[in-house]
């Protein structure tokens, strides 16, 4: 490899679009440029540590160091830096640009008195720059989907041995695509979605979004509940599912949060415990569930992702801030199917009480025909609707509407037309079916 020394300097505000283009080229088909946009709008962004490599006034490489937190065993937090991302223009690779960027960033971080830099990436690449396995220094992975050995650290002059604990990613890291590597999926059906990966993404976002939130804030979607109640509930649900899977039957004893434990810690511990249980066996492994047609481990992977996604909407509405996150279209469409077929469809006969009427629900390229007191049918558009009322909107918006929640922007709004009495009957049945 021929080494060409490139000038490294701080990126200027006018170069955002140029860097975005470089990132799109360097990481295609992954949308790392979108992740960088999110990180630059987060509190952890440090403009002084946003670097570019230039050659004849052309940007040929980019590296950014962002602030993340190390949560120590006693609950205290320390600031550390995370390298994300490192990119070199494809036609300029093999010239030493990546190494020059890393060495420059390390030198500047060391001069600032930073204790260490962590990175999630290729072992061979970053070990060549001087990074080592993060667990060798007592650092726990922020996400269980990160492959062993790919989370690495470089200690700097100000590092000391007391820096041990779990790295906490900010909410916008999780909002982008989650962290780590998705599990294999099937080509069709509900398991075409990597549910373990999705579960981790939404669970991690909720953990990060509530780490310093006011737990007493009221939750509009759950009257009488607070943010702390949502976290407590989820921590209980996760442990309940662990017991359900382990004992092979519905748990009979309540699983209350121990006195003195904080709801956020209870939740953070619970979702990671559940992940370990769900990841321990294949998706199609037999498991006790409450579904009439899916008694596999995959049922819980899917159901628990939706459980967290719906309650993440609760937290968003309670905090009233831009979450940098929304339910993805594929998860939202599956969630529409789940609430209509698993929850509502299996209980329509006992809930509708002799009501008639047909409601068509459209999102994406699909339509669900909900015949009150009859059945739920699924059609692909553009089959003509047989309907008394029509509910339409973006997948995330319709998903939230069916759960009586509101989706954050840019999900848009839901349009409801036709017989409003039939729509009200549907909403009443949905509430009964999901509580």
Describe the structure.
It is a single chain. The protein is α+β, with helices and mostly antiparallel strands and 435 residues long. The chain has 13 helices and 14 strands. Strands 1, 2, 3, 4, 5, 6, 7, 8 and 9 form a 9-stranded mixed sheet that branches. A 5-stranded mixed sheet has the order 12-11-10-13-14, with helices on one face.
What would the principal axes of the Cα set say about the shape? Answer: globular
Helix content range:
25-40%
What's the count of strands? 14
How many individual helices? 13
Q: What's the order of the H and E elements?
A: EHHEEEHEHEEEEHHHHHHHEEEEHEH
CATH architecture identity of the largest domain: 3-Layer(aba) Sandwich
Query: Unreliable stretches, pLDDT < 50, 5 or more residues?
Result: none
Percent range for β-strand residues: 15-25%
Note the main sheet: 9 strands, mixed
CATH superfamily of the largest domain: Gcn5-related N-acetyltransferase (GNAT)
The CATH topology of the largest domain comes to: Aminopeptidase
CA(first)-CA(last) distance = 63 Å
Judged by helices, strands and strand pairing, the structural class is alpha+beta
